[in-house]
Each structure stands twice: as structure tokens, then as C-alpha cells.
Design goal:
Helices cover 72% and strands 0% of the residues. The protein has two domains: 1-163, UbiA prenyltransferase (Tetracycline Repressor, domain 2, Orthogonal Bundle), CATH 1.10.357; 164-292. The chain contains 13 helices and no strands. The chain is mostly helical. α5 (89-109) packs antiparallel against α6, α7 (139-159) packs antiparallel against α8 (165-190) and α11 (242-257) runs antiparallel to α13.
Length: 292
């Protein structure tokens, strides 16, 4: 393989396309509003999805440039292309700038002004996270969680649907559950009091993070149940969707508990039972939202 080809493949790896699955959250708002089946909704959802993919990849590139020395000392992250010397920091930063520019200018040029503002908020928070906030306990959890929430909000404003308070609460605490579970797995890997590549991990213990993700899981279930029962639909499909939702959350918690949730997208791609539960939930909830 030529050096240019190796660098190109490394650049793609650093952009983390496997993590673009997180950006499917832009469809959450339209699904919750029962409008996802409308033809007029598909275009804006795709625009929001692509924009968040580009912005997120720009942030990943910046993050790996800033963390290059720490990554080289990590047992797993040292294989990342920039840390391994396959991609230069200069190339990564230039690519990040282009991706961010296309995402923000593109959405604005297409007439999605509100989406552009949400995207700017997302990018600014993520840059602040990469530069400093990732090393601040609790704040790092809040910022990463906000990234998931802003994806959901971005999809809502792109389609111009009203997002219910319960939806926003479910998205917020569900995000916190995922992020705290990820941190728990990282602490489980390096041990309490050890920071590896993230100084904030020094102040996290497994017991504290277990407390956080347990509280977040319980709160997510409560608000989701309240939300599902608030639907004025002709069939109890939304209420029935609570079952697969809770079971899927508990299924994911098994991976957190054994310290295997450091890469959430790997769980989503590899756990067939979780995928089936997700499809069952989606079918029930979407049908309930459409019929209300």
C-alpha cells in the first residue's frame, strides 16, 4: 500500500464513520412528532444527518491532534492513525476545517438557519471539550451528553416540529446514561485513580460512575413512561413500547456493568438482541406517535 493510500485510509479512520450511527438521533424529533413518514420531512432529516456527520468528524480529527501524545501512551489509542504517524497533524487539521466549513456554510446556504445555530452550538461545545473541558470531572459528562441532545434538537428544528419537554428530558438523561456508562468502562479498564489519557478519570471512581449511570437510567425510564402515557392515541402502542425500551436499556446496562461499553457503537453494531429490541421499540413507538 502506498503512503498516500495509507494516509487516506488513516484519515477516514480518524473521521470515525462508524460513529455516525449516533447522528441517527436527528430523526428522533420527527419520529416523536409522528411526522417521520411525511415526504417533506425526509430531506431536512438527511441534511441534518449529513451536517452532524461532517461536524462530528471534524471534531474527532481535532481531538486526535490535541491528544496525540497522550494517545501514544494508551494501550489501545496508540493505534489511532495520527498517534501512529500515518496521518500528519497538519493534514488532519486542514481536513477538519474543510468538513466544519462545509457543514455550517452548507446548512445555512440551504436555508436551514436554525439548524446552523444548533450545529454551531454543538461544534463550539465540542471544541471546548477537546481543548479543556474533557479534563473537568462532571463537566465532561455534561458536554458529551449535550452532544447527543443537540443532535435530537437539530433534527427537530430542521423539520420545524415542536419538541415536547418529556422528549428533551428523555434525550438528556438517556445521553447521560450512555456517557456515564462509557466513562465507567474507561475507569474499569485503567483502574480507580488512574487517568491514562484523560485527567478527569483520576477523580472518578467506579462506584461514583455506577451511581450516575444508575440514576440516569432510572430517570430516563420514568420520563419515557410519562411521555408514552401522555400520548392521546387510539391504540396503546406507545405505552406498550415501554417494554422493549426498558429491556433494551437493561440489556445495554449489562455491557456497562462488565466494563465493555467504552465504544457504544460497537455494542450497537454487534448485539443482535439489542438491535431486535430497538426495532421492536421503534415500530411500536412510531405507530403510536402516528396514531395519536
Amino acid at each position: 500500500m502506498s503512503r498516500v493510500a495509507a494516509a487516506s485510509r488513516g484519515l477516514i479512520r480518524t473521521a470515525r464513520p462508524r460513529q455516525w450511527v449516533k447522528n441517527v438521533l436527528v430523526a428522533a424529533g420527527p419520529i416523536a412528532a409522528g411526522t417521520i413518514g411525511d415526504r417533506s420531512v425526509i430531506g431536512p432529516v438527511i441534511v441534518a444527518f449529513v451536517a452532524f456527520c461532517l461536524a462530528a468528524s471534524a471534531v474527532y480529527l481535532l481531538n486526535d491532534v490535541l491528544d496525540v501524545e497522550a494517545d501514544r501512551a494508551h494501550p489501545v489509542k496508540r493505534a489511532r492513525p495520527i498517534a501512529a504517524g500515518l496521518v500528519s497533524s497538519r493534514t488532519a487539521l486542514a481536513t477538519a476545517a474543510v468538513l466544519a466549513l462545509v457543514a455550517h456554510v452548507g446548512t445555512f446556504a440551504l436555508g436551514y438557519g436554525q439548524l446552523t445555530l444548533v450545529l454551531l452550538s454543538y461544534t463550539a461545545l465540542q471544541i471546548a471539550y477537546c481543548v479543556a473541558l474533557k479534563h473537568q470531572p462532571v463537566l465532561d459528562l455534561a458536554v458529551v451528553s449535550s452532544g447527543f441532545l443537540l443532535r435530537a434538537v437539530g433534527g427537530g428544528v430542521a423539520v420545524d416540529v415542536e419538541l415536547s419537554p418529556n422528549f428533551l428530558l428523555v434525550a438528556s438523561f438517556g445521553s447521560l446514561f450512555m456517557v456515564a456508562g462509557k466513562r465507567y468502562s474507561e475507569v474499569h479498564l485503567v483502574g480507580d485513580g488512574e487517568h491514562a489519557t484523560r485527567r478527569s478519570l483520576e477523580l472518578y471512581s467506579q462506584s461514583y460512575l455506577r451511581f450516575v449511570w444508575s440514576i440516569a437510567a432510572a430517570t430516563t425510564i420514568v420520563f419515557y413512561s410519562l411521555w408514552a402515557f401522555s400520548f392521546d392515541d387510539s391504540t396503546p402502542l406507545a405505552e406498550i413500547s415501554i417494554a422493549p425500551f426498558v429491556i433494551a436499556l437493561l440489556r445495554y446496562a449489562v455491557d456497562i456493568d462488565r466494563g465493555a461499553a467504552g465504544e457504544p457503537e460497537e455494542i450497537v453494531f454487534n448485539d443482535r438482541v439489542l438491535q431486535l429490541l430497538g426495532l421492536a421499540w421503534l415500530a411500536l413507538f412510531t405507530a403510536g406517535a402516528v396514531n395519536r
